[in-house]
Amino acid sequence: MNRTKREKAIRITLSVILAVTLWLYVGSIDTSEITVRANDVPVYFVGEDDVLADRGLMLVGASVDTVDLKLRARRSVLYTLDTRDLSVQVDLKEIEKTGSYSMGYSVNYPANVQKNKITVDSASCYAVNVTIGELFKKTVDVQYEVTGEVKQGYTLREPIITVDSLNIHGEQKDVIRVSYAKVSYDVDGLDASVNEMVSYQFYDSADRPIEGVKIYANYDELPLSIPIYQVKEIALKVNLLEAPGLRADDVVATVLPQTLTVAGERYLVQDLSELLVAEYDLGEILNSSNRTVTLKLPDGVISLNGKKEATVSITLKNGIESARFETTNLIVENVPEGMSARITTELMNVMLRGKTEAIANCDSEKIVVVADLTGISGAGHYSVPAIVRYEGEEDLGALGSYQVEVDIMEDILPETPDDPEENTDTAN
To answer: Cα separation of 330 and 16, whole Å?
Structure first.
């Protein structure tokens, strides 16, 4: 039974193909003409918005906005025609003054149709009556109204306005009624910024919308940007760079305020949890201190309350002391090749810092002052920056800066005999 159904389907398909092929063949050799109806063909006007407007004129009205056509052509020509693609064109470019005119029209055919082989057998009208009036111009302000509540956890910012006025034109009786144009936009429940082209409405001086009038403007739609930012509370943090003799546990770092409420596009703040406001090298901290720092937020993120500064306090805990020690352990590093160095400073007085117990157990013999000669290339006397290292087990670090006096001298190489054989003979 399934085989019978398949055979029947194949026969039907072959019959349809044969019928279409035969119809096309007959159409190609049949020279007789047929007619087809095209109803409600839209009417378009050429020169309305440019040529007439430049002359201070405008199209006030037209007798029809669609035309019914009866077209005649050979079957093969009309076969390629879709009547929904037709339009009627009225050319207004030759009109130079106000008044009423009876205008002929032309039929626009699709590009794939042989239009020169088609004739209009009949039409619902053969001319379009138009009324041309004086163009009246005016500039009106654009108002923007944003309504609704954005999603919880988000905040609505002021709209970004790029167009605040419109140049409108039309019949005087219509244009003079316009007091302003207004854009209305509802943001209820939104959680992302708006960036759209939006429509507008004309209003009169009594704030009533104006309907059913033919008024043109230099913009059909207006650009509208409404920032809708995610709100986030983030912690303000300080980064401490530890140094010998003073570790992060030895200080108390506080920031006021401790947190900051920020807002920004969701992709900017959704993963933002803290803000680094300052970084301290504990090796350079001598005493407890307070300072005001400027908050540097990521681009596109704002402080909701306008807070731009924070106060950072660094307090040394009890049990941290400093003391002075003398050392004669002065050495140099990175002596230039072919040169030698001699430290002329014999004794250095250095200040070390650390916990009370570490200071008490400090062994001055383990204090080393190192002068780095990197960058020195010629002989002479130099005052070289030096660093202080404590090589004992106690956690101690040096405070302050130090200089070591160093003489740099070129090495004197032993003379080499010119003739080794001659020197041998002399020795014998």
So the answer is: 108
Residue 114 sits at φ, ψ, to 5 deg, of -80, 85
Query: What is the distance between the alpha carbons of residues 170 and 212, in angstroms, rounded to a whole number?
Result: 13
Q: Write out the two tokens for 329.
A: 């352990």
**pTM of structure:** 0.65
CA dist 220 → 139, 141, 173, 177, 262 (Å): 15, 15, 21, 19, 37
> Tokens 């013999």 sit at which residue?
365
What's the rounded Cα separation, in Å, for the pair 50 and 91? 12
Give the span between the Cα atoms of 265 and 414, in whole angstroms. 75
Whether residue 219 contacts residue 197, with contact meaning beta carbons closer than 8 Å, is answered with no
Give average pLDDT by consecutive 10-residue segment, the chain, 428 residues.
63 70 57 89 93 89 95 89 94 94 95 90 95 92 97 96 94 94 97 96 97 91 97 96 94 95 96 95 90 95 93 93 95 92 94 95 95 90 94 94 94 64 47
- SS3 per residue for the chain: CHHHHHHHHHHHHHHHHHHHHHHHHHHHHCCCEEEEEEEEEEEEEECCCCHHHHCCEEEEEECCCEEEEEEEEEHHHHCCCCHHHCEEEEECCCCCCCEEEEECCEEECCCCCCHHHCEEEEECCCCEEEEEEECEEEEEEEEEEEECCCCCCEEECCCEECCCEEEEEECHHHHCCCCEEEEEEECCCCCCCEEEEECCEEECCCCCECCCCCEEECCCCEEEEECEEEEEEEEEEEEEECECCECHHHEEEEEECCEEEEEECHHHHCCCCEEEEEEEEHHHCCCCEEEEEECCCCCCCEECCCCCEEEEEEEECCCEEEEEEEECCEEEECCCCCEEEEECCCCEEEEEEEEHHHHHCCCHHHEEEEEECCCCCCCEEEEEEEEEEECCCCCCEEECCEEEEEEEEECCCCCCCCCHHHHHHHHC
Which residues pair with residue 351 across a beta bridge?
A: 324, 399
- Extract the tokens encoding 265: 């596009």
- Sign of the torsion angle spanned by Cα atoms 256, 261, 266, 270: positive
